[in-house]
Amino acid sequence: MLLVLALLWSITQLPVLSWATGAALLVGRIALGAAEGPGAATASVAAFGWFPPTAADFRRH
Questions:
Q1: Neighbours of 36 (CB within 10 A)
Q2: From CA 6, how far away is CA 36, in angstroms rounded?
């Protein structure tokens, strides 16, 4: 999933190299925001899987 997000980020930056206009920047930022949206949730799930369940882990009760 992180590889897909990195590829989407890279693709959304390509128009800025070709057409450095206000419209290209606006569309690129909107697409970049959509591509980065699931990044925080994906990182949280990955980090949560690294740690064993404990008594303080309320999600598994």
A1: 13
A2: 9
The model's pTM is 0.50
Q: How far apart are CA 8 and CA 13, in angstroms?
A: 9
Distance CA 33, CA 38 (A): 10
Nearest C-alpha neighbor of 13 from the set 22, 27, 4: 27
Higher-confidence residue of 52 and 45: namely 45
Q: Encode pLDDT of 14-43 as tens digits.
A: 877 777 788 888 887 888 887 777 777 877
- Residues with Cβ within 8 Å of residue 52, at least 6 apart in sequence: none
- Lookup: tokens for 14: 């390509």
Considering only CA atoms, which of 11, 32, 15, 33 is closest in space to residue 24? 15
